[in-house]
Amino acid sequence: MTEELDVTGQDSDGGSEEVVLTPAELIERLEQAWMNEKFAPELLESKSEIVECVMEQLDHMEENLRRAKKGDLKVSIHRMELERIRYVLSSYLRCRLMKIEKFFPHILEKEKTAQEGELSSLSPEELVFAKQYMANTETYLKNVALKHMPPNLQTVDLLRSVPKPDLDSYVFLRVKERQENILVEPETDEQRDYVIDMEEGSQHLIRYKTIAPLVASGAVQLI
């Protein structure tokens, strides 16, 4: 069985890209998205199409298991694989929700100021959640603290109060496609900018913001 996945992105001509994936390739895409989301300091592009296809694949696997013979060893093996995929999917979604809760003002501001055609970091459901979370946070702060403060202190700027994602943090990565002339910014004022080449299959420890575009394009994999 193959799955037809409408991947969010642009092809070389600037149009939409449609990719046909086998079930194994689909799960591999999910695992890659999970690892990147787990180790990136910021919320990455939503992979809602992959999530939906994986959920459909899980339903299909469940149906096959219900039709399989009782006591067949293959059933136990497929059941373990089913639970493994469920764990990866749940962990991926939980990781994204935790980031939304942690950085919600900045994520919503980014969505508000995004240019037309720019890929969204949030799925429609995540956008609703983020807006509700922000509204609930503002209501809680007002009822518990702000209304008891002097009038000139009864407002709070959440964009200034909530920390931003630390894009200067360091991450481990594995190179999937050879990259040339990657500009690395200095760590101190005494140092200068320099460029590096990254060979396919090599692993690096590097500042996240230096390679953030490569994570988004799939050229490198966070590990």
From TrEMBL:
<dbReference type="GO" id="GO:0006261">
    <property type="term" value="P:DNA-templated DNA replication"/>
</dbReference>
<keyword id="KW-0235">DNA replication</keyword>
<feature type="domain" description="DNA replication complex GINS protein SLD5 C-terminal">
    <location>
        <begin position="165"/>
        <end position="223"/>
    </location>
</feature>
<keyword id="KW-0158">Chromosome</keyword>
<protein>
    <recommendedName>
        <fullName>DNA replication complex GINS protein SLD5</fullName>
    </recommendedName>
</protein>
<feature type="domain" description="GINS subunit">
    <location>
        <begin position="72"/>
        <end position="144"/>
    </location>
</feature>
<dbReference type="GO" id="GO:0000727">
    <property type="term" value="P:double-strand break repair via break-induced replication"/>
</dbReference>
<keyword id="KW-0175">Coiled coil</keyword>
<dbReference type="InterPro" id="IPR021151">
    <property type="entry name" value="GINS_A"/>
</dbReference>
<dbReference type="Pfam" id="PF16922">
    <property type="entry name" value="SLD5_C"/>
</dbReference>
<dbReference type="InterPro" id="IPR038749">
    <property type="entry name" value="Sld5_GINS_A"/>
</dbReference>
<dbReference type="InterPro" id="IPR008591">
    <property type="entry name" value="GINS_Sld5"/>
</dbReference>
<comment type="function">
    <text>Required for initiation of chromosomal DNA replication. Core component of CDC45-MCM-GINS (CMG) helicase, the molecular machine that unwinds template DNA during replication, and around which the replisome is built.</text>
</comment>
<dbReference type="InterPro" id="IPR031633">
    <property type="entry name" value="SLD5_C"/>
</dbReference>
<feature type="coiled-coil region">
    <location>
        <begin position="44"/>
        <end position="71"/>
    </location>
</feature>
<dbReference type="InterPro" id="IPR036224">
    <property type="entry name" value="GINS_bundle-like_dom_sf"/>
</dbReference>
<dbReference type="Pfam" id="PF05916">
    <property type="entry name" value="Sld5"/>
</dbReference>
<comment type="similarity">
    <text>Belongs to the GINS4/SLD5 family.</text>
</comment>
<dbReference type="GO" id="GO:0000811">
    <property type="term" value="C:GINS complex"/>
</dbReference>
<keyword id="KW-0539">Nucleus</keyword>
